[in-house]
Write a structure and sequence with these properties.
This protein is of the alpha/beta class and about 475 residues long. About 35% of the residues lie in helices and about 20% in strands.
């Protein structure tokens, strides 16, 4: 294999090809060496996992390594969402943690997310040091392991339930009683992932009716290309909305750190619209204030909302390894990226699809408006912003040629709108008038070329995407 390397959020690989027990143990040994090197091993190490094939066993393999390195290790006693495991790192004052998950990737993938003591994504500096330790293990082959029964006998290993503390914590962000008794009809699609059952535990018990689909364990994720809550994967949710005459549909991805939203007419509320709605809710309904952090792929609507409310909008490259540290440094009100991951002040500096969904319900209850009406109100504030993304497969041997071709491009306009600037911090982003834009970049977690566009209409966005793809030659 080419070596274990972390993308925008951890190391991901195809199960039984590169994601093997041998390589997971190598990754765990390098992680243990890193945690010991920074002196945080005595505080312990949290290990969690999602519902993917082999995730529990891979997580146990990680614990076998960390305990052998003298690190007290706490393993979740069941599959758990990434935000739940991350929350445990903070509440248990652990030195760090790891989660076996490939998040939204297709079923044949799995992954290893490393979480520092603050529970968020590891910064670029941390990742660089972590990869150095892992590379050393790859070279030496020196991996230590310990049977978990022996580790438990020595007081180095314990299984625990991460759910209760998280549920108690998350209840402080919204008025759960109001949501429970609002008489809403809600459909939740857990996408066969680790978030199954969480919304039911949080909002059931009153006049609000909740129906959950895809809550059973099935690591094949049938009926969807991958457990990612975007429009083409949510046909079953749309059908369930119609069958139950529901007011709103919510979907969480494989590890429940992302959220997708469908309105009562079965229309997908885009991820850029969802984060903009959540920011509007925080600023206007809850009357909170603070900087808004967004990735380079997130909507210009965030900048316009920030201007309206006299707060700062901060833009970063893609990935919570950039957004999270910026969020902590500025005590930001919220942070969001186009992939559907949103974080909020007072919670961990990390994506949380469950809290995001609760805030959407809180907004609907407090305003008395459905998602479609809320979307219209947003557009009244900042203008119409339509967004779309194309994921394009490419020959990896052509990556450098594609990069050169795009970086050398200097289009005068796109879809008839003048190009007024170019941002090349993460891919190449063509800035157009009125805050609209097109971006071309490689995925940090999958072998895909991503092409993004935000414009004033569906037709404009389609034209922008087509013109941008032509620049790539793919």
């Amino acid at each position: 294999m080419p070596g274990i390397r972390f993308g925008t959020d951890g190391w991901r690989a195809i199960i039984a090809e590169d994601f093997t027990f041998e390589n997971v143990r190598i990754c765990a040994q390098g992680t243990a060496d890193y945690v010991n090197s920074i002196g945080l091993a005595p505080r312990g190490f949290i290990v969690g996992y999602d519902t993917r094939f082999g995730s529990k066993e891979f997580a146990e393999a990680v614990a076998e390594v960390t305990t052998a390195n003298g690190i007290p290790t706490f393993l979740c006693d069941r599959s758990a969402p990434t935000p739940v495991v991350s929350h445990s790192i903070v509440t248990m004052n652990a030195g760090a943690g790891a989660i076996i998950t490939a998040s939204h990737n297709p079923a044949r993938w799995n992954g290893f997310k490393f979480k520092p003591e603050y529970g968020g994504s590891a910064s670029g500096e941390i990742v660089e040091e972590l990869e150095r330790h892992i590379a050393n293990v790859e070279e030496t082959g020196n991996v230590r392991t310990m049977n978990l029964r022996e580790a438990e006998r020595r007081g180095l290993f314990e299984r625990f339930d991460p759910e209760p503390d998280y549920l108690n914590h998350i209840a402080q962000f919204v008025d759960l009683d109001s949501i429970r008794n609002a008489g809403l009809n809600v459909v939740v699609d857990s996408m066969f992932g680790a978030g199954a059952g969480y919304f039911d535990k949080l909002i059931s018990g009153g006049s609000t009716r909740l129906v959950e689909i895809h809550s059973e364990l099935n690591p094949a994720f049938p009926g969807m290309a991958q457990p990612e809550p975007i429009a083409h994967n949510l046909r079953a949710l749309v059908d369930a909305l119609e069958d139950n005459t529901a007011d709103i549909g919510l979907a969480t991805d494989g590890d429940a750190d992302r959220l997708g939203v469908v309105d009562d007419d079965g229309n997908f509320i885009s991820t850029t619209e969802t984060f903009s709605l959540l920011c509007m809710h925080l600023l206007e309904v809850l009357e909170q204030s603070g900087p808004l952090v967004k990735s380079i792929t997130m909507s210009a609507m965030i900048d316009k909302l920030a201007d309206l409310h006299d707060v700062e909008a901060i833009e970063t490259p893609v990935g919570f390894k950039y957004l999270g540290p910026q969020m902590m440094a500025t005590n930001a009100l919220a942070a969001g990226e186009e992939s559907g991951g949103y974080a909020f002040r007072g919670n961990i500096p990390e994506r949380d699809g469950i809290l995001s969904g609760l805030l959407m319900l809180d907004m609907a209850v407090r305003t008395g408006e459905n998602p479609a009406d809320l979307r219209n109100r947003l557009f009244e504030r900042v203008g119409v912003h339509i967004y779309d993304r194309w994921d394009v497969e490419f020959d990896p041997s052509m990556r450098d040629a594609i990069t050169r071709r795009v970086r050398s491009s200097r289009p005068f306009d796109m879809a008839g709108r003048p190009v007024i600037g170019i941002d090349d911090r993460d891919g190449v982003k063509f800035l157009l008038e009125d805050g609209y834009w097109t971006l071309i970049r490689f995925s940090g977690t999958e072998p895909l070329l991503r092409i993004y566009a935000e414009g004033p209409s569906t037709a404009d966005v389609a034209a922008m995407l087509g013109e941008a793809r032509a620049l790539t030659g793919v």
